[in-house]
Amino acid sequence: MLGFKVRSRLDLPNDTVVDFDFGDTYFFVGKHSKVKGKSKDPYRMMVGFNVASVSQSYNEIKDKGVTFVAKPFEAPEGGYWCMTIQDPEGNILQFFGDK
């Protein structure tokens, strides 16, 4: 949905992992057999991504069925922009960067 490049997948009987490639770094997302149901507090942990342009990121994903918690806005302190979305599992993802 967000266009992240999948580096690898691992499917085990009780665990599933997707490893996303971001050039020199990667982002590892996994399921675990001890986690049941949806998160009761999706704001407890928010993953943030630094991007070159929040507006450009918004334009790339706005028509892909993404749920926006906050469309691009300038942070109250000024100087950088933010956008917050909810992924299909209800997790909160934030994007920070220039307009």
Overview of the molecule:
The protein is mainly beta and 99 residues long. It has one helix spanning 54-61, and strands at 5-11, 16-22, 25-31, 46-53, 67-74, 81-86, 92-98. It contains one helix and seven strands; from the N terminus they run ββββαβββ. Strands 4-7-6-5 form a four-stranded mixed beta sheet. The mean pLDDT is 83.
Please outline what is shown here.
With 99 residues, the protein is mainly β. 8% of the residues lie in helices and 51% in strands.
Rg over C-alpha atoms, rounded to the nearest angstrom: 15 Å
Number of domains: 2
Global shape: globular
Helix content: under 10%
Low-confidence stretches: none
CATH superfamily of the largest domain: 2,3-Dihydroxybiphenyl 1,2-Dioxygenase, domain 1
Tag the structure with descriptive keywords:
8% helix, three-stranded antiparallel sheet, single chain, four-stranded mixed sheet, 2,3-Dihydroxybiphenyl 1,2-Dioxygenase, domain 1, 1 helix, 99 residues
Present the secondary structure layout.
Elements: E1 5-11, E2 16-22, E3 25-31, E4 46-53, H1 54-61, E5 67-74, E6 81-86, E7 92-98
Parallel strand pairs: 4-7
Antiparallel strand pairs: 1-2, 2-3, 5-6, 6-7
